[in-house]
Amino acid sequence: MFDHVDCPVTDIRRSVAFYDLLLAPLGIARLITRLASSPTGASNAGYGRDGHAGFWLSDASRKGHLHVGFSAATREAVAAFHAAGLAAGGKDNGGPGLRPYAANYFAAYIIDPDGHNIEAVCRADR
Question: Where is each VOC domain found (predicted)?
């Protein structure tokens, strides 16, 4: 169901130190750290298992808004998600297409009525 969740934080370094310790007993480790060098220029850190970061911390650039990424089985489903979001009154935050975050990362983004960034992502090679 979920591909990833992004939690906005006010102090990325403090939050990384906290979540490193909090999640370790669950076998969840920090896999990615980008301090002011992410594709958006924001700082973030990704936690997960088996090479997939599914829980993210992001600096205050997204303050107050949640980011949720839903898994999609196909790229067509990503496009249908985007179209449905617009039809339901959502705001476009990035149409269907490949993104530079990882190989075969095909995603689309909708801002919901409360300002949350909702994403659908397909990681299949086509």
Answer: 1-123
Cβ–Cβ < 8 Å for 117, 67: yes
Q: State in Å, rounded, how far the first CA of the chain is from the last one.
A: 19
Between CA 19 and CA 3 the distance in angstroms is 19
Cα–Cα distance for residue pair 30/13, rounded to 1 Å: 13
| Domain boundaries defined on the chain | 10-59, 67-122
* Residue 119 in this model has a pLDDT that exceeds 60: yes
Side-chain half-sphere CA neighbours of 64 within 13 A: 2
Q: Read off the pTM.
A: 0.76
Q: Which two tokens stand for residue 54?
A: 């599914």
What dotted CATH number matches 67-122? 3.10.180.10
